[in-house]
Amino acid sequence: MKVSVIVPIYKVEQFIARCATSLMKQTLQEVEFIFVNDATPDESLSILEEVLAAYPERKKYVKILQHSVNQGLPAARNTGLEASE
Q: Given its phi and psi angles, is residue 75 left (phi above 0), alpha (psi -120 to 50 degrees) or beta?
């Protein structure tokens, strides 16, 4: 992959649908999308999964990683970096 997009998820249910939809509509082909659920207490992950279901052709380029407890934004970014190709 040439580009990895890392999106931390924590209390972003108001924004995640618009963010994920925008990413899925990108025309760049060599890109991976890494979403890091930082133990969000809201419905952000469910909303993300609904959006991703509308773009099955992107599924192989999407990773959803999980933190069991909230570790903060820098840790979520680092988790995404470690998983990037």
A: alpha
